[in-house]
């Protein structure tokens, strides 16, 4: 039974990596493609390659010292694997649903909400008493849902002012060229940051799932090469699929920006995500950070370009992601609890 749960959890982890990269690739491609800084094919190829770079960097930066206690200390494998399976199922389903709706939702919020909901549900049926309601886990919800989007919005809004004033005497063609360069640089930072953030999460799952099931005998660092290869491949393939429904929302449905403001937005999101990925420790949402930066630049212009009906749907989705995923994952765990006891 435990071996079957391990296999299911690993398959879902690969599926999570595929769907997550597919769902999040518009954050790096929507604005550059919209303003012709990159062609659609080149943007997806660049995203695939840079996500692989991010995963490799995540492997190097992965804090193995924090993983050892997780896989060495005694743990009841069935409930732990049940939480992981239900969380992954919920996150994959939410990503696919929000893609169909064309909404740039946070995979991080969905995942963390699922973890909390599934573990609390296990506590209700007395399968575990260790509920993950500490400040650290809640911080992984507050930062991507509230803090990062607010910082991205404010920074993008403010940077529009010196950008417009500093380039007001520059010819339009040169402004567009500079903006497109900024989009490509920002897209690079977004892609690498995505590989760093989500790559570490997938790598942790790849390593800890077999260990929880008792299938890992050697040192943890020996499992990193195969985990990195599988994760990088899944991220690359998922990126190449391209979620253009979400790309249209980011680039035109939510707010319409000119090339200069698009360059500022992509640059801000790329900088925040790349810096946050290198710093590590706190999760950020690529979707919400990018969408907030685009909205910040779009609202700082004289003519009205914001579709507040679409923006309202996006904000509502952000607020509902964690609680909805917590309820769904908790319900799934309760349904599976007779098999986990």
TrEMBL record:
The chain crosses the membrane at residues 41-65, 77-101, 107-125, 137-157, 202-220, 226-244, 314-336. One of its GO terms (molecular function) is phosphate transmembrane transporter activity. Its main location: membrane. GO terms for cellular component: membrane. Keywords: Membrane, Transmembrane, Transmembrane helix, Transport. Pfam families: PHO4. This is Inorganic phosphate transporter. It comes from Kocuria coralli.
């Amino acid at each position: 039974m435990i071996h079957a749960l391990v296999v299911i959890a690993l398959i879902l982890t690969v599926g999570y990596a595929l769907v997550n990269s597919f769902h999040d690739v518009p954050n790096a491609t929507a604005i550059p493609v919209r303003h012709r800084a990159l062609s659609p094919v080149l943007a997806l190829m660049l995203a695939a390659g840079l996500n692989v770079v991010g995963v490799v960097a995540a492997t190097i930066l992965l804090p193995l010292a924090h993983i050892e206690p997780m896989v060495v200390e005694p743990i009841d494998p069935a409930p732990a694997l049940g939480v992981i399976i239900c969380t992954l199922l919920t996150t994959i389903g939410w990503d696919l649903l929000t893609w169909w709706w064309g909404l740039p939702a946070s995979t991080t919020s969905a995942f963390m909400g699922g973890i909390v909901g599934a573990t609390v549900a296990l506590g209700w049926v007395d399968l575990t008493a260790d509920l993950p309601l500490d400040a650290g886990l809640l911080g992984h919800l507050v930062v991507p849902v509230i803090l990062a989007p607010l910082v991205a919005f404010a920074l993008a809004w403010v940077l529009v002012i010196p950008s417009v004033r500093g380039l007001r005497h520059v010819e339009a063609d040169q402004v567009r060229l500079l903006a497109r360069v900024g989009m490509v640089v920002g897209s690079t930072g977004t892609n690498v940051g995505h590989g760093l953030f989500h790559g570490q999460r997938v790598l942790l799952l790849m390593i800890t799932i077999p260990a929880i099931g008792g299938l890992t005998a050697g040192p943890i660092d020996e499992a990193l090469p195969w985990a990195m290869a599988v994760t990088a491949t899944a991220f690359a393939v998922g990126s190449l699929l391209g979620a253009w429904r979400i790309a249209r929302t980011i680039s035109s449905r939510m707010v319409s920006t000119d090339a200069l403001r698009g360059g500022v937005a992509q640059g801000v999101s790329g900088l925040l995500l790349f810096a946050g990925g290198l710093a590590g420790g706190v999760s950020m949402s690529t979707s919400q950070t990018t969408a907030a930066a685009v909205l910040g630049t779009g609202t700082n212009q004289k003519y009205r370009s914001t579709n507040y009906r679409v923006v309202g749907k996006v904000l509502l989705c952000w607020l509902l992601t964690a609680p909805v995923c917590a309820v769904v994952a908790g319900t799934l765990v309760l349904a599976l609890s007779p098999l986990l006891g």
